[in-house]
Amino acid sequence: MESLSQLMQLLFSGLTIGSIYALIAIGFVITYNITGVLNFAQGEFAMLGALLTISLSSAGLPLYLAVILAILIVMLVGGFFERAAIYPARKSSVATLIIITIGISFVFRGAAIFIWGTQPHSLTPFSGNSPIRIFEAVLLPQSLWAVGISLAALAGMYYFFNKTYTGKAVTACVMNRFAAQLMGIKPEKMSFLSISLSAGLGALAGIIIAPISGASYQMGLMLGMKAFIAAVIGGLTNAPAAVLGAFLIGIIEAFSEGYLSSGYKDAVSFAVLLLVLFFMPNGLFSKKSGKRV
Amino acid sequence: MINVHNLSVNHGHLKIIKEISFSVGKGEIVSIVGANGAGKSTLLGGIAGIYPPASGSIRMEDEELAMKNSVAIVCKGITLVPERRQIFDGLTVEDNLILGSYHRYSKEKKQCLQDLEMVYDYFPKLATMKSRLGGLLSGGEQQMLAIGRGLMAKPKLLMLDEPSLGLAPLIVRDIMNILVQLRNETGTSILLVEQNIKAALSISDRGFVLERGSIVLEGEAESLLQNQSVRDAYLGTSPSLQK
Ligand SMILES: Nc1ncnc2c1ncn2[C@@H]1O[C@H](COP(=O)(O)OP(=O)(O)OP(=O)(O)O)[C@@H](O)[C@H]1O
Ligand SMILES: [Mg+2]
Fold it and tell me: Is B91 helix (H, G, I), strand (E, B) or coil?
């Protein structure tokens, strides 16, 4: 019985962290498909979202308002980042663009140290802290929030890209940029839209995880790397596969933390990435990748 | 309606289109014919704002369009149905069509939805496969979809780059007939690039022959069809064998 409850416990925490990775990974995939940029500053949006929410709510705003406002601000920051850093360099090589995004991530982290300092901050959970027991395992309400909000956001993304006119235009731009231009769809506008959308998703991820693991200027780095691994495992062009990849990484991490030692979890994630890159360079789910974003 | 004057278009340092001048009047169908690599697609791309012209002017209704980008051009009423169709494989037929009206959709959604019905009237076959993915259509259906998508932009000048490419003669004839019908009913001007010279010239008012980036011959479509050098170079038939 002991082992079953531990198993459930680890599974829950894997799903929780996986849902966080999923939100950021989707941002990776959206940005990559529409702009061709691997945005290594993606994780920093999570950090900004978390710290902004903490500041806004400690300034007296109700939590939900703080969350919404923080997401909007990060979306603006993302849009500004696209205009100021990505757009002017859009004709540069892939390597240059990657270096630009890495450089920007340092800028974000530096700004965060300047504003929030180096010490970690905490955010109160969305609805109390009294644990829920399921199958002998203890589940924090925040975990339910994490999984629930992520799934809702992912469903929202699905709806946006498949059912709304603007979303279809973005999708069309991904499928055939040339034809989209002939139709009057401006790729630059889509690129702006996609990066601010990705930034908003990243912010949401950071805000959800903050009550569980705290928030600090450096939280974006690991979140971004893990989400990147998830996106690569999913093949980088396939949003649902990236989500599966994210949950896979989350669960693998939780289990290696529980059964091996917490020191191993990062190493295991990177090992999984390398294995996938060696043996299935198009992603674990490449056969299913008919539809992009 | 559209006046192209001394237009040159480069690819890198290579001058592909060399000081070309021509015009297309309102409701006119004009064909550009020429061999592979003559520069036909480059010319259309230059007009559509895909390849910025190196020099020259493109005037439509007294407005200079030569330095405008592709988005501005489509808003001005010039639409290119590109070579090899370029439809959105993963989107449905209806989504492909409705996205064709992107530049005006937010302003006149109702009108766009009406025009969608008009496109279905021109291409009844598309109406039977509205929710099929574009990538699953046959070549002929994809070409119809590409033309329909172009029509959704409500162009004053519709440019088509080799719509007959890879299609059976019967379907080519269907498509050519639809172009004539479209011109007659809506007054849309059509600039048609073709290697299928016979099909193109038989529906055109005028035509010109492009060779290595220059116009080497132009005139009434009928007279071009009878022209001996055109026949020798592009049709490979003698008059007696025709029809
Ligand atoms: N993007 C490009 N970059 C460099 N050169 C190009 C490009 N596109 C076309 N060319 C060159 O320009 C010339 C004209 O090409 P273009 O595609 O306009 O010919 P075309 O008449 O449309 O031929 P086809 O009948 O085969 O479609 C060719 O020599 C081609 O190699
Ligand atoms: Mg061509």
Answer: coil
Does residue A137 sit within a domain? yes
Please give the tally of structural domains in chain A. Answer: 1
Query: In the structure, what pLDDT confidence band is assigned to residue A293 with cuts at 50, 70 and 90?
Result: very low
| Closest residue to B82, CB basis, from A172, A179, A291 | A179
CA nearest ligand 1 atom 18, residue: B39
Residue B236 has what pLDDT?
63
pLDDT tens, position by position, A200-259 = 999 999 999 999 999 999 999 999 999 999 999 888 888 888 999 999 999 999 988 888
Whole-number Å distance, alpha carbon A34 to ligand 2 midpoint, is 27
Phi, psi of A110 (to 5 degrees): -60, -45
User: What residues are paired with B124 via a beta bridge?
Assistant: none
Q: DSSP labels for B17-43?
A: EEEEEEEE-TT-EEEEE--TTSSHHHH
Q: Which spans in A117-186 are helix H? A: 141-163, 165-175, 177-182
- Does residue B36 have its Cβ closer than 6 Å to ligand 1? yes
How many domains would you assign to chain B?
A: 1
- For chain B, say whether A169 makes contact (Cβ under 8 Å): yes
In a domain, A257, yes or no: yes
